[in-house]
Specification:
- It contains 9 helices and 10 strands.
- By secondary structure, it is of the alpha/beta class.
Amino acid sequence: MSDPVLSRSGIPAARRIVVKVGSSSISGANSDQIAPLVDALAAAHARGTEVILVSSGAIATGMPYLKLDSRPTDLATQQAAAAVGQNVLIYRYQDSLDRFRIVAAQVLLTAGDLENPTHRGNAQRAMERLLDLRILPIVNENDTVATHEIRFGDNDRLAALVSQLVRADLLVLLSDIDSLYTRPPEQPGARRIVDVAFDDDLTGVEFGDVGAAGVGTGGAGTKVAAAKLAAASGTPVLLASTRQVAAALEGAELGTWFAAAPR
């Protein structure tokens, strides 16, 4: 058992980290962010940290191949876009990871998998073995078979549940904004929230909606809910910008830190 990560300065010494990146950060015009994201993950991997990446983006990545200009609203087309996009997305990650001779593993989960004890145990065992082998698991929701009734709803929640599954020392939630703010950051009077105690209910904080890119399903509210879920299980959370990921994993004083409940 590793020592708990109590602050940003302890991140470089973390034994196991889950990093979540959203669709808008690594698809479309931002697909060039995959390489610097991989650079940061590889640097952590090189110092011995076990890294699990939870990556959205299958549907957004598949949309151009289906000649779609906007995110589909019907389930069948979402599933089709995900089936095409997941293949392309994993290829892009592996192509970038090849520079570091790191092998990626694709892990697709549904909410039902983590609620069923047998499936959950299988997923946990597979993840542990992959990490033992120094493989970098890339986790996404299995959109091709998920239905509206059993979806996680957003990959922020999936990332929190994965951090519970693998007993991560830290969860890093990456997004288009650099921190949590008291109100949407483009609004007057918005103030950055630096630290959140595990028992802080954030009363008075105003959450915006899905980001401007319109290709994801999350927002500040889903990230806070996910951060609270992970923190309640003893895993601290850092909310930061995707473009800051290298500095975040090196322990820089940035983003919003959600302290974990005592284990």
